[in-house]
Design brief:
2 strands; mainly alpha; 11 helices; Lysozyme; two-stranded antiparallel sheet; 252 residues
Length: 252
């Protein structure tokens, strides 16, 4: 067999693998069950948590709530290891979607961000294309593919889009120990672990990013700090736990 024929076969196989990767990204939800049940004192805490209503649960389905709990348990999102905080994830989604919990909601400032945690086009791109395929794209192709990826996310139900929320947070498993740091994982991952006084963006050095997030600048001084961003989300957590926002009987 000639070298050219072998190269042709190789190219076909690479394309097939990329197609399979894209299909798997779409079809494979985080289907595993949570890890082993805690024992001793932690078991008592787990029983108590299962009987606790979930923030913002009145806005979503029981399936959505169950998947949020699973994500936080599986990725160890909470103040201590083995003590998941699904209220946090519900609150981040409430903020990012303007309390709508819509999978198709778009950023009105023009960033292209879409969905439950406002996936940016470049982030969405990696859900549906391999690194090798992205490396071969021109800048214009990457931008177009990123927009198309956001469209695909927007077409999902909120419950199914949570599969991509899981994939987004997976690299931070075991690292998110506060409401503020979890929100930073969405908004500005470089600020994870930084003090609340740490500046995120200012009007002068990052005008576009500042404009897209200007609602977080509480004191309107032209600088958005981690603490200001966290304050907005903290207030939303308290709101989400109000009786009107908690579904009756929506417990694990």
């Amino acid at each position: 067999m000639s070298r050219e024929a072998l190269l042709g076969i190789r190219a076909g196989l690479v394309a097939a693998v990329e197609d399979l990767d894209r299909l798997l990204a779409e079809l494979a939800p985080p289907a595993a069950s949570p890890g082993p049940s805690p024992s001793g004192a932690d078991s008592a805490w787990a029983d108590s948590a299962a009987a606790t209503p979930l923030a913002w649960s009145a806005k979503v389905s029981t399936v959505f709530c169950d998947r949020v709990r699973w994500i936080c348990e599986n990725l160890d999102i909470g103040s201590k290891p083995g003590r998941p905080a699904p209220d946090w994830l519900m609150t981040w989604i409430a903020w990012e979607t303007g309390r709508s919990f819509r999978a198709d909601i778009r950023n009105m400032a023009g960033s292209g961000a879409t969905g439950l945690i406002q996936f940016m086009p470049d982030t969405a791109l990696h859900f549906f294309h391999t690194k090798a395929a992205i490396a071969k794209m021109t800048k214009a192709q990457r931008q177009a593919a990123g927009r198309a990826a956001c469209d695909r996310l927007a077409a999902l139900t909120p419950e199914d889009q949570l599969n991509y929320v899981y994939r987004y947070f997976k690299p931070y498993a075991g690292r998110i120990r506060s409401l503020a740091d979890g929100y930073m994982a969405i908004l500005w991952p470089a600020a994870i672990g930084q003090p609340l006084s740490a500046p995120l963006w200012d009007r002068t050095s990052r005008p576009t990013t500042y404009r897209q997030n200007a609602g977080l600048d509480v004191d309107k001084d032209g600088v958005i700090t981690k603490g200001e961003a966290a304050a907005k989300v903290t207030a939303l957590l308290a709101e989400g736990l109000q009786p009107a926002n908690v579904a009756r009987g929506n417990v694990a």
